[in-house]
């Protein structure tokens, strides 16, 4: 998204020998243009680091500085000395300049984590918004946030200025399972955050129980399989806030089954686009099953809502990005059904126009595994996507690359003409997973992920898996 800057200066006239007026020199461009697109290939951490593969997020500001956030265990050095602890997993945020030089980095107190897929955003002034989850009463810089945490967590929002100083922090409170005599847990996670051009912002995620988003409390729909037993399950929420951080509107979506958000973004015109999956049994309350893409006006009215029936996002969820003309690209693990165009799985990418009509889709396949973790539009109607695969990578069923062992990362460029599709892969014998991507205004892309060997906390490749070193790459 482009941000306009206007420089005002008093007229300055310098008379030369001929008495003609000389134009004042133009103001300096704060963005080091030559460095914005220079390739970068950086790693952070050691073989003993344990970085969660969820919550790792990246953003680029108007000066091409790079912001990085995530959750890891074991002190980590981003170039300014070690931050963090060996005691338990901790959340971190770091800022690098356009050439990858460390500007500042810090660890958040234990008890605060990043669990979503895209929990970092930066506005046109360089101010930073982070969204995470609290599992204890912590002080993020503005005093203890309070709250009780018995089998429950609460989301938090944290604002930092461009130098990393605390501006504001708040907890989004919710109830406890004991409040409704429920034996399970209440999980609440922010999955995505985004700023618009004016500095308003939107958030999305999933929640169980009650969630107070700032004056509006939403309640998830219980799943009732038996009149004598109620099982609470996640619903999707989306909320928009103004430039002062006050809630403008909030909505939730859910029926008697499971809902999961892929994420959200904001169009150049200020509309919010939300993508989520609705799972339900035929007689369940709520919307029909399928993949939903909804566009909201700035005041929260539905511009349009599209259902791609028989489609589903699973596993790690997905990624969403808007296009300059108001369209949307999205991708993830699961199955996407574009009627009249095609069906795409086990990982997919899709592009729809500003009216929500399908224009491009593709299957991303590996011999044993494939995952689309982040997407972005290109300027000619195509799609950029990053993720990982095992053994062989195929697009539209066509073999494009082989792995170097284990899981390898990929960066694909999908065009209207399948023959023009291109793929770059990276990885050695150990695992490499590309997890997040951000674009600078000149079109350069910053990709972050983790290197292996992976640690699988539940003996499978799940959102709870951890990698070792963090990698950061930038290229056109």
UniProtKB/TrEMBL annotation:
Keywords: Signal. Residues 1-21 form the signal peptide. It comes from the Bacteria. PANTHER family: ENDOGLUCANASE, LIPOPROTEIN. This is Lipoprotein. It comes from Polyangium mundeleinium.
């Amino acid at each position: 998204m482009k941000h306009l800057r206007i420089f005002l200066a008093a007229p300055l006239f310098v008379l030369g020998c001929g008495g003609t007026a000389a134009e004042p020199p133009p103001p300096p461009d704060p963005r080091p243009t030559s460095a914005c697109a220079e390739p970068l290939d950086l790693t952070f951490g050691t073989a003993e680091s344990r970085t969660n593969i969820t919550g790792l997020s990246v953003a680029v500001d108007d000066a091409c500085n790079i912001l990085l956030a995530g959750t890891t265990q074991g002190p980590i050095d981003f170039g300014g000395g070690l931050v963090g602890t060996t005691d338990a997993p901790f959340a971190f945020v770091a800022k690098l300049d356009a050439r990858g030089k460390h500007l500042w980095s810090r660890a958040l107190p234990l008890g605060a984590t990043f669990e979503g897929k895209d929990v970092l955003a930066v506005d046109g002034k360089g101010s930073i918004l982070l969204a995470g989850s609290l599992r204890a009463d912590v002080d993020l810089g503005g005093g203890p946030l309070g709250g009780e945490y018995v089998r429950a967590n609460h989301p938090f929002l944290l604002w930092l200025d461009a130098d990393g100083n605390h501006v504001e922090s708040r907890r989004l409170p919710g109830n406890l399972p004991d409040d409704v005599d429920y034996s399970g847990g209440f999980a609440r996670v922010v999955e995505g955050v985004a700023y618009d051009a004016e500095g308003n912002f939107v958030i999305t995620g999933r929640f169980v129980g009650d969630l107070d988003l700032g004056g509006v409390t939403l309640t998830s729909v219980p799943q009732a399989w038996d009149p004598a037993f109620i099982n609470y399950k996640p619903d999707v929420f989306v909320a928009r806030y103004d430039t002062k951080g006050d809630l403008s509107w909030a909505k939730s979506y859910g029926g008697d089954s499971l809902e999961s958000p892929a994420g959200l973004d904001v169009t150049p015109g200020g509309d919010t686009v939300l993508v989520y999956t609705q799972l339900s049994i035929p007689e369940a309350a709520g919307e029909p099953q399928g993949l939903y893409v909804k566009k909201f006006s700035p005041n929260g009215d539905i511009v349009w809502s599209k259902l791609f029936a028989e489609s589903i996002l699973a596993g790690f969820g997905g990624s969403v990005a808007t296009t300059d003309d108001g369209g949307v690209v999205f991708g993830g693990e699961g199955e996407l059904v574009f009627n009249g165009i095609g069906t795409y799985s086990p990982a997919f990418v899709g592009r729809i126009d500003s009216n929500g009509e399908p224009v491009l889709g593709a299957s991303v396949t590996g011999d044993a595994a494939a995952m689309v973790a982040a997407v972005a539009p290109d300027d000619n109607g195509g799609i950029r996507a990053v993720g990982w695969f095992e053994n062989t990578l195929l697009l539209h069923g066509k073999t494009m690359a082989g792995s170097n062992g284990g899981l390898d990362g990929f960066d694909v460029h999908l065009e209207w003409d399948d023959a023009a599709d291109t793929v770059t892969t990276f990885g050695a014998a150990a695992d490499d997973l590309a997890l997040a991507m951000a674009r600078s205004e000149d079109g350069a892309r910053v990709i972050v992920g983790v290197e292996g060997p992976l640690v699988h906390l539940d003996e499978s490749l799940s959102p709870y898996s951890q990698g070792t070193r963090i990698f950061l790459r930038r290229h056109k």
